[in-house]
Recover the amino acids of this structure.
């Protein structure tokens, strides 16, 4: 949906005059692209899926929509905004209050983990129009009947992809069960993986989809062929490419299990956080490896095609074909794992003189000519110049012990804790849980989880990788 430039003025919208006057006093004159494309639908009370990055103006988009239809005289919870972290919830609540200044007596209440529970109960007893909170704490208040959503008209999921990464899928489903089916639902996400589509289908009704492209990004995949002499030069080529481009996440495809182990071991020997993934791994080892890679505490995953099927990996910087794929279709599946979510992907394929016939077949199959490149002319360092940004911590308890993602977030962000923005993916199984934490907070996170209590009890904790 293209919006003429003249319609970027907030005054062109069917907004409460008090909101328009306040926008002018705040210096908000023209809408950002996400606001211009989304707000007309939002004001028509339509469900909306908006894909836009932080800083695009998305908070004002849903804030203006919910404030425009709020009935101030009905002192009931009419809007719920869910955010992945306490820091974001605080920012969103502040922005809503700022935009609501022209309308008197609107009460916005934040409900987040990592802070005392009791005072929140007291605040809820006094009532609110708008709740902004994190899924774990909101779900807990609903379960304990402190919060009533019977009068809800608007649900907002802000940074929905991040909430799902942090393991809040079940909490979101539980929360939705407490609210009326007839409501407006707005979902904002920087990326749109399959799991976002799945939750949208369950909780939304005929949503309008809006996507604002990042003008500075290129969604194409840069694919380059590099000729090597033998197996030893393949390993050197991999190291040169990793050293030159310093990708945060790399998936290397090998044709056999033996080769995945050998390549991973060789990279580990020179300092890379690398792991092999193949069919001979036990399920526990496979789960741990994937958790560490998803959390970016393993920077290189070396896999066979069969083992890599069904991997839910986003933001993959580079794919390296250690050997040319044995089947033409497989090559396309391999390189298609990079260049997602609006980012520019990089695919590198190594080949020998014997592979030239296979390369020609691939070019005919794909109806394109590959770029032939020269390997970087740089000196191989003894240690990699890039270290994984995260550590992964294993907790010896899960769903069977009533452990939830919100409990883990609360334990980490509690008194003198780490910022919620520094927590990565959280996965909770029946008897285990994995959480990723920024490397600089790894020691503090480990101490908080091992020395503190979760659900009133202690669990065994160990640091896996990173």
């Amino acid at each position: 949906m293209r919006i003429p430039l003249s319609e970027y003025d907030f005054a062109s919208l069917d907004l409460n005059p008090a909101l328009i006057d306040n926008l002018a006093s705040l210096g908000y004159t023209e809408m950002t692209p996400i606001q211009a494309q989304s707000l007309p639908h939002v004001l028509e009370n339509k469900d909306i899926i908006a894909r836009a990055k932080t800083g695009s103006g998305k908070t004002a988009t849903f804030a203006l929509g919910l404030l425009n239809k709020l009935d101030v005289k009905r002192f009931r919870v009419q809007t719920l905004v869910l955010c992945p972290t306490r820091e974001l919830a605080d920012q969103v609540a502040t922005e809503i209050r700022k935009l609501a200044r022209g309308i008197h007596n609107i009460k916005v209440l934040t409900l987040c983990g990592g802070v005392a529970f009791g005072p929140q109960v007291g605040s809820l007893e006094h009532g609110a129009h708008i709740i902004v909170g994190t899924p774990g704490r909101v779900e807990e208040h609903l379960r304990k009947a402190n919060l009533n959503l019977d009068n809800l008209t608007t649900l907002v999921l802000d940074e929905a992809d991040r909430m799902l990464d942090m393991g809040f899928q079940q909490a979101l489903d539980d929360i939705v069960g407490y609210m009326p089916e007839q409501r407006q639902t707005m979902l904002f996400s920087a990326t749109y993986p399959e799991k976002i589509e799945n939750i949208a289908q369950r909780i939304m009704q005929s949503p309008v989809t809006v996507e604002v492209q990042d003008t500075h990004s290129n969604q194409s995949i840069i694919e380059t062929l590099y000729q090597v002499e033998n197996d030893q030069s393949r390993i050197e080529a991999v190291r040169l490419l990793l050293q030159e481009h310093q990708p945060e996440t790399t998936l290397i495809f090998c044709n056999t299990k033996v080769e995945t182990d050998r390549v991973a071991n060789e990279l580990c020997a020179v300092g890379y956080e690398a792991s092999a993934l193949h069919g001979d791994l036990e399920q526990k080892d496979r789960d741990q490896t994937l958790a560490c890679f998803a959390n970016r505490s393993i920077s290189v995953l070396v896999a066979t095609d069969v083992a890599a099927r069904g991997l839910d990996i986003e933001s993959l910087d580079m794919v390296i074909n250690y050997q040319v794929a044995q089947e033409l279709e497989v090559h396309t599946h391999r390189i298609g794992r990079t260049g997602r979510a609006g980012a520019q992907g990089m695919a590198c394929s190594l080949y020998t003189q014997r592979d030239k016939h296979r390369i020609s077949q691939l070019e005919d199959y794909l109806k394109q000519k590959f770029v032939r490149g020269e390997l970087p002319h740089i000196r191989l360092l003894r240690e990699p110049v890039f270290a994984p940004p995260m550590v992964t911590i294993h907790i010896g308890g899960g769903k069977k012990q009533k452990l939830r993602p919100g409990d883990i977030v609360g334990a980490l962000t509690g008194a003198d804790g780490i910022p919620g923005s520094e927590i990565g993916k959280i996965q909770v199984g029946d008897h285990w849980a994995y959480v990723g934490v920024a490397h600089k907070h790894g020691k503090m996170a480990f101490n908080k989880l091992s020395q503190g209590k979760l659900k009133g009890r202690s669990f065994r904790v160990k640091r896996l990788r990173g």
